[in-house]
Each structure stands twice: as C-alpha cells, then as structure tokens.
Amino acid sequence: MNAIKTFSLAALLALAGTASATSFVVTTDAVVGAIGATSDASSDVSSSFGDDKIVLAARDDAAAFVASQGNIRGVRLEAALQHIRQQLPTLVSDDMQLASAILSL
C-alpha cells in the first residue's frame, strides 16, 4: 500500500511540474510578443514622427494614458493617435503601444 501512495505522489508531482512549466512558457511567450509589438511600434513611430509637433505635444497626455492604464485619454493624445494612423495606415498597434512609442520620442 505504501508503494502505491508513493507512486501516486510522484505521478502527481510530475504532472504539476509539467503544468507549471507549460504555463510559464505560455506566459513568457505572451510577454515577449507584447514587448516585440511595442518595440516595433516604437521604432516605426520614432523613425517617422521624431520631430512632428502634433505627436511631441501629446507626450504629457501619453504619459497620463499609460500611467492610468488607458483610463485617461487627453485631447492631444487623441489628435496624435489619429495623426499617426493617417500617416501610417499599415501600422498595426493599439493605443497603449502607440502611447508608449510617443513617450519614447
């Protein structure tokens, strides 16, 4: 009977370790993908809008937007997001990525 309990415990621990490792890999992949997307948006925006007055004027609004996790949306940020999307229609980025890119200018 003791051998069965020991075997069951070993099997349970092996399954738990596998589940944790898989969860870690999925989480890591998601984080790396998000960072990569933000990095791509940052490089596209910074190379195109480094001296754009509309975009540079939105830095304070972008900071508030990022700090509030998207709850504070200033008028200048809205204008900059619209301006960026008009200038780069093929850019695929959400508002948070673009606001982060504006902050990197």
From TrEMBL:
The stretch of residues making up the signal peptide is 1-21
Instruction: Kindly state which keywords UniProt assigns to this record, in alphabetical order.
Output: Signal
Name the Pfam families on file.
Answer: DUF2388 (PF09498)
Superkingdom to which the source organism belongs: Bacteria
InterPro entries, alphabetized = CHP02448
Q: Which named protein is this?
A: DUF2388 domain-containing protein
> What is the organism field in this record?
Pseudomonas spirodelae
